[in-house]
Each structure stands twice: as C-alpha cells, then as structure tokens.
Design brief:
heterodimer, A: mainly alpha, two-stranded antiparallel ribbon, 3% strand, B: alpha/beta, 4-stranded antiparallel sheet, 10 helices, 10 strands
Chain lengths: 293, 237
Amino acid sequence: MQQLAQQIVSGLALGAVYASLALAIVLIHRTTHVINFAQGEMGMFTTFVAWSLITNHGFSYWAAFATTLAIAFAGGILLERVVIRPVESASPLAVIMVTIALFVVLNGLASWIWSAETRNFPSPFPGVVTVWGVSLSRHEVGAIAVSLVVLALLWAFFRFTRLGLAMRAVAIGPEPSRLLGVRVGWMLALGWGFAAVLSAVSGMMVAPIVFLDPTMMQSVLIYAFAAAVLGGIDSPLGAVVGGFALGVGINLLSTYVDFVTPELELPVAFAVLIGVLLFRPSGLFGRAVVRRV
Amino acid sequence: MPALLELRDVEARYGPVQVLHGISIAVEEGQVVAVLGANGAGKTTTLRAVSGTVRRTGDVLFAGRSVGGRGPDGIARLGIAHVPEGRGIFGELSVRDNLRMGAYTQRDRRAFKTDYARVLEHFRWLEERRDQQAGTLSGGEQQMLALARALLSRPRVLLLDEPSLGLAPIVVKEFFRIVATLNAEEGLTVLVVEQNANLALAASERAYVLEVGRVAVQGSSDELRRHESVRRSYLGY
C-alpha cells in the first residue's frame, strides 16, 4: 500500500512534467502544424537560466522561478519572430528542420555557457511529507501542484480572455481571424511564448529529480511526444491527461512488472507512441470535428 | 462628398493569371452597391482586393484615404468587415465565441454588451443556440452567424461575398431582409457580390457588372434592370 501510493505520486510528478511539455508541443502544433523538436531543449536552457540566477546572482528560488518564466516567455516570442517567422510559409519539413537546428544550437549553447557537467538543481519543496501514514517526497507533491496551477492559469487564459479566444480562433482559421482584425503573426508568437513558459516549468520541476545537465530533457521530450500523441496531438486536455497517464502507467509498470526494467521505460513510451499511431491515430481525446457544409 | 469606399484602377492576379484588369468602383456612405457577373468574372477577387487578402495594384480608398499597404487585419481595423465566401465560421468554437470574435477589435466590454443586444435583435434564435458548436449549424444559420459576427465589429462598410450561395431561397430572402433593415435603420454601407442578379439588383441602389475582370456596365440598379444586354445575359428574360 505504502509502495503503491508512493509510486502513483512519483508517477504523477513525472506525469506533470510530461504533461507541461506535451501541452507546449500541442500548443505549437495546433497553430503551425509543426512539431517543435526543440521544445525540450527550450526547457533545459531556461532551467539553466534559473540555476544561474539562484547560484550566481543570489536570487531566491521563487524569484528565480518567476524571472525565468518571464525570460522564457520573451525568449519564446523572440524565437518565433526571428527564427520561425522567416520559414513560416516554407514547407512544414523546412520548419521541422529549423526546430531540429534549434535543438542542436540550444544544446550546444547550454554546454558552452554552463559546461556539460551534471548539477544539483534545488527544489523549493525539500524533504518528506506524511499523508495518511504514507511518506511522500515533498518535491513530487509540489511539482504536481505547481504544474496544475500553471495549467489552470493557462486554461483560464484561453477560456476567459479576449486574447486567449483569438489564439484559439487563429488555430482553427487564420484567414477568417485576419479578416476580423486579428494580428495572426503575433498570436503565433504568443503561442511560442506560452509554449516556452510551459517547457520552463517542465524543466524546473524535473531538474531536482533527474539532475541538471544539457541532456536532461531529451528523454522527457520522448515521453512528452508519446503523451501528446496519446491524447490526440491537437487536444490540449488530451496532452495533459496523456502526460499524467503515461507518468503513472510507466512508473507502475516498472515497479510491478518484472521484465520492465528502468532501461525499458523509454522503449515502453515508444511502444505507446507507435501503438496509438497504429490503432487510434486521433488519440484518446482527438475527436473529429462535426462539420456541415 | 467623396465616396466612403473607392477602388481606383485595381488590378490583381493569382500567380501568372491576371484576374482584375483595372476596376474602378465607388460606394457612397449609406449605399448598398452590388457587383454582378458570371463565375470567374472577378467578383470575389474584387472584394479580396479591398480586404487585402489578395495582392493588388491600383488604389483602394477608404473615407478618402488610401488604405496603403495595410494587411487584412489592418484593413479590418479601419472598419471594413469582409464576410468571405464560405463564411469563415470557426466550427470548433461556440456560437457565442464566434460572436465575441466579431468584436475582437472593440476593447470596450460594456459597448460589446449593448452592441450584442442590438445586433442579436435581428437574430433572436442565435441567442438560444449560443453554446452550440458553430460547425453544427446549417449552412443558412452559419451565413446568418457570419453576418451577425461582422456587425459586431461596428463596420463602416460591410463586404458580402455571394451570401446566397448554396442556401434555400427562404433563407436568402431573410438574409437580404436583415441587410435592408440595417441599411435603412442604421445607414449601414454594403458592397455585395452576387451571382444571382435578380436578387442583387433588388437589394441594391447601384450595381456594377463585371466581365472577365473589367467593369462592363454600371449604373443605378433600376437602370440596369432595364438594360438590354444585362437583362438577357444575367436576368434571363
């Protein structure tokens, strides 16, 4: 019982990390129909920024957290304007190549600035908390809470604000949106800004668990892809549910199924990815839109 | 008084194919002006040249001033609302969110509420369907929604592209009745493109007939209805 509860909570904590990154991937895919391969590296890079703010510039954890999110937001917008915009009207393949280049550049830049050694990243939630007699990692519970708060804020933004509505409209129909006075290019840039914020949250929440180094987000990215596809690549809710389901599912598999060793966890994620693509390409939440002409 | 909307010698092309060969059209404030013509005459392209969704040469003037190099969003913010062919409804959004998008350029929330109440008076049934996914509305309902949405942007000129296309006659009649009411009561200025010449001439004060990208005939709608070749080619009697 103790073990099951612990494994579920660790699964949910990792799931929260996957969910945030998966949602970032979905946000960009919905508007530009492109998979951003650099999404994980954007999270890694901004987590290094947070680390640097804490270790070299004397920021408290939460001040660094907030500053990092602001930097990520601005950085995401800047990337879209400077790197993606020029190839926007090129073929999707060209855009994908650009995101792969971005992956390599961000990775190289991080190693160059901060060196490739592995570092401790602090958690604002140290120690252990006991809930109903089960002792849980405080960081894991905190990571779940922080991710849920960020996801809820984002949901409220899209649901209740004029700008959020315009971003949803642009994802559905850029042309009619333009005719209603929406600056479509800026909406796409905002999408990149929010995706960068989500990757930063994902990176800062996973770093205390896996340690900080330039490769830390690479396996997270694979899980996030699997989660996004599992949920239906265009469904934000699906990405979140997919992320949590994958986190818990894989954790439980590797705990209770003997042949699933930690080395097999990533292949299992791949199996999920391929299985979904084969048998349910629209994912769990990807519903076909009803249309009458 | 200068025209509210004026096209001067507008040309437009899709790649190597030139569609408009120098079109001049004037729409005065408070007028309903129709553009008629066969398929491929350049009617839709004329509207797209105004709203900036096709690249053009020549000038488009709004309230006496050139719209210049503004893109579609900038032109929309000037107060030119384009209801495109195919309506451009956001199928996955609710009816109400589609309407909210109409007022995207209006920052004042209270103004939106009064606008909403005023516009919805013409579309009572929309209020009951406001939580429905817009993509599940019928074609006629979507056309009405597109009109209501455009009205919420407080347009000074409304561009309508083939509103009758694929709709039942009774729906078309209702659509044009609402446009006529808005024109009479609020002085709404309208430039409407229509293949159905009878309908368009009945609804408008002035009309232009396009033939392969040029204005072939123009005049008051009454004149055009009596015009020999217009009658034979477009009215069918």
